[in-house]
Amino acid sequence: MPQRMPNPxxxxxxxxxxxxxxxxxxxxxxCGLVYLVQSDPEQRxxxxxxxxxxxxxxxx
Length: 60
Known about the structure:
Elements: H1 32-39, H2 41-59
């Protein structure tokens, strides 16, 4: 049985795969954009609100 490669999801662009859009990133785990958003309280809260909204629309 062939093994499937994991497809990491972008934590910023909700619902989309990680496309390595940040130079030097190897995935969401070392992405500078993710770090910047998570280190800013206002951006982190806005992202959390978007995730909640995405979850509600996905469940419908």
